[in-house]
């Protein structure tokens, strides 16, 4: 098999290719609508995951699991939010080896202020896909994430 045949098979069958292409297109729509908030879709997602934790905080390990991100990528993304004063990272009170994240007051305010822009983006994406496809995609993505997490370590999001 040569490189062209390999590329044709990959392009025709690869779930990763399709998932990443779709994710980029959807992310672009959210980023465009969120632009006036000064936040990107990835930042809103990360901040929401933090806010939903017990007592409004999450450990780095739990965030990594929820978002299916490697710790190095998560740390890099959190640093930008920390530098902007939106997130605080500290050591756990009960286990000094564990780092805990939480939104600052400004982070909470900015996340809440981003909601109307997020709603606009969400409505536009659902309208573009159609309600049936959007609901099916939502369910399929959740099922795929769960299946990949069940497949073993480093295979997906266990949440």
CATH topology: Arc Repressor Mutant, subunit A
What proportion of the residues form beta strands (DSSP E)? 5-15%
Which residues sit in consecutive blocks of at least 5 with pLDDT less than 50? 155-159
Q: What is the CATH class designation? A: Mainly Alpha
Distance between the termini: 39 Å
Biggest beta sheet attributes: 3 strands, antiparallel
The overall pLDDT, averaged over residues, is 93
Number of helices: 7
Query: What general form does the structure show?
Result: globular
Helix percentage:
55-70%
Structural Rg: 18 Å
The name of the CATH superfamily reads Winged helix-like DNA-binding domain superfamily/Winged helix DNA-binding domain
| Beta strand count | 3
| Tally of domains | 1
The strand order across the widest sheet is 1-3-2
Which structural category do the helix and sheet elements fall into? mainly alpha
Could you characterize what this model shows?
The chain is mostly helical and 159 residues long. The chain has one domain (3-150): Winged helix-like DNA-binding domain superfamily/Winged helix DNA-binding domain (Arc Repressor Mutant, subunit A, Orthogonal Bundle), CATH 1.10.10.10. The chain has helices spanning 3-13, 15-34, 41-51, 60-67, 71-83, 105-129, 131-150, and strands spanning 57-59, 87-91, 99-103. It has a three-stranded antiparallel sheet with strand order 1-3-2. The longest helix has 25 residues, at 105-129.
């Amino acid at each position: 098999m040569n490189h062209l045949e390999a590329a044709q098979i990959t392009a025709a069958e690869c779930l990763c290719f399709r998932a990443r292409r779709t994710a980029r297109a959807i992310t672009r729509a959210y980023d465009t609508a969120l632009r006036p908030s000064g936040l990107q879709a990835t930042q809103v997602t990360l901040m929401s995951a933090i806010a939903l934790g017990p007592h409004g905080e999450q450990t780095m390990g739990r965030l990594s699991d929820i978002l299916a991100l490697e710790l190095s990528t998560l740390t890099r993304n959190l640093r930008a939010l920390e530098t902007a004063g939106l997130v605080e990272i500290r050591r756990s009170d009960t286990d000094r080896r564990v780092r805990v994240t939480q939104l600052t007051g400004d982070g909470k305010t900015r996340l809440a202020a981003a909601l109307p822009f997020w709603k606009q983006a969400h409505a536009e994406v659902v309208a573009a896909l159609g309600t049936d496809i959007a609901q099916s995609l939502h369910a399929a993505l959740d099922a795929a994430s769960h299946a990949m997490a069940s497949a073993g370590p480093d295979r997906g999001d266990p949440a």
